């Protein structure tokens, strides 16, 4: 049995109008199309539903039963479909975003505040995790999408690049490298190769930035044999405190530097400039719910236009 929803809709309209011509006008069908739909429905059910005379259309007992039972079912189906469509298009509900600590601190507060203002029906929840965990949660669907440093492999992820964030050196003002930089009339700049021989305090390999730092150091002739990594830490604040204590100098992404700088540390641009790409990532070939798509668009808009410190 292959009864279509359209056939039932036409039948219920006929049952109400008691006229093929009026049914056609109501549904935008020709009278012959209405008649054909009724013949096909009766053929599928193997029962006569209508008695048609030159003046009117009457329901048989089977037709009356079908009209009585089908009408509330079709109305419930219509209500359900409308509710599903509303859920699919409504920008409301909870949206979960994951990002790594540096990005969470530097970029996400402004995005959350903007979401509260522009999308008040959406509750935005930030999941602050290390980059590897962020990517794992995006892939598992535990979060709707993530804000990350360019992954080494995208694989099953779709991404858009938001902005570029350059790496900088962080060292004490009295460090021997500072006079060299000043003599070169670049009081806030150092070359990567000037770091040769310096002990380094770096973020550990759980950070999305570490592989990029290692590659830049190696390319400038400052590999592990020339620039020993004396400490690897999980948080930028820990690295800053170690630099203050004289344990070594550090390389950090620009977004990790406080907006108002430091009172006890010097930040220098590194030349040639090496940048990390900040990206939005989501599962490939998976559509986002309307609320998550609205937040994705908001974050992309704000972070693409936001200046990098």
Brief overview:
The protein has helices at 5-17, 20-27, 31-45, 61-89, 101-106, 108-118, 131-140, 177-183, 210-219, 236-244, 290-305, and strands at 50-52, 57-59, 93-99, 122-128, 145-149, 157-171, 189-191, 200-203, 229-233, 249-253, 266-271, 275-283. The chain has 309 residues and is of the alpha/beta class.
Show the helix and strand layout.
Elements: H1 5-17, H2 20-27, H3 31-45, E1 50-52, E2 57-59, H4 61-89, E3 93-99, H5 101-106, H6 108-118, E4 122-128, H7 131-140, E5 145-149, E6 157-171, H8 177-183, E7 189-191, E8 200-203, H9 210-219, E9 229-233, H10 236-244, E10 249-253, E11 266-271, E12 275-283, H11 290-305
Description:
This protein is of the alpha/beta class and 309 residues long. It is built from 11 helices and 12 strands. It has helices at 5-17, 20-27, 31-45, 61-89, 101-106, 108-118, 131-140, 177-183, 210-219, 236-244, 290-305, and strands at residues 50-52, 57-59, 93-99, 122-128, 145-149, 157-171, 189-191, 200-203, 229-233, 249-253, 266-271, 275-283. The strands form 2 sheets. Strands 3, 4, 5, 6, 7, 8, 9, 10, 11 and 12 form a 10-stranded mixed β-sheet that branches. It has a two-stranded antiparallel ribbon with strand order 1-2. The longest helix has 29 residues, at 61-89. The radius of gyration is 33 Å and the shape is rod-shaped. The model is unreliable at 183-187 (pLDDT under 50).
């Amino acid at each position: 049995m292959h009864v279509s929803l359209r056939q039932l809709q036409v039948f219920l309209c006929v049952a109400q109008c008691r006229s093929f011509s009026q049914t056609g006008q109501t549904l935008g069908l020709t009278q012959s199309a209405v008649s054909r739909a009724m013949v096909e429905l009766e053929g599928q059910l193997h029962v006569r539903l209508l008695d048609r005379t030159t003046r009117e259309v009457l329901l048989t007992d089977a037709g009356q039963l079908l009209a009585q039972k089908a009408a509330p079912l079709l109305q419930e189906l219509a209500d359900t479909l409308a509710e599903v469509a509303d859920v699919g298009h409504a920008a409301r509900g909870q949206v979960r975003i994951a990002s790594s600590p540096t990005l969470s601190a530097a970029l996400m507060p402004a995005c959350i505040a903007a979401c509260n203002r522009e999308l008040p029906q959406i509750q935005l929840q930030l999941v602050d995790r290390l980059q590897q965990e962020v990517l794992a949660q995006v892939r598992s669907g535990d979060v709707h999408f993530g804000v990350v440093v360019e992954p080494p492999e995208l694989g099953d992820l779709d991404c858009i690049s938001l902005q570029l964030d350059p790496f900088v050196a962080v060292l004490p003002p009295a460090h021997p490298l500072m006079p060299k930089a000043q003599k070169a009339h670049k009081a806030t700049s150092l070359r990567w190769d000037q770091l040769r021989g310096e002990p380094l305090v770096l973020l550990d390999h759980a950070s999305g930035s570490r592989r990029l730092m290692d590659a830049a150091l190696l390319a400038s002739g400052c590999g592990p044999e020339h620039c020993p990594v004396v400490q690897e830490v999980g948080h930028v604040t820990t690295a800053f405190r170690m630099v203050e204590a004289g344990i070594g100098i550090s390389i950090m992404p620009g977004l990790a530097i406080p907006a108002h700088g430091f009172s006890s540390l010097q930040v220098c641009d590194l030349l040639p400039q090496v940048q990390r790409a900040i990206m939005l990532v989501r599962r490939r070939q998976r559509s986002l719910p309307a609320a998550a798509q609205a937040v994705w668009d908001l974050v992309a808009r704000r972070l693409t236009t936001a200046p990098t410190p």
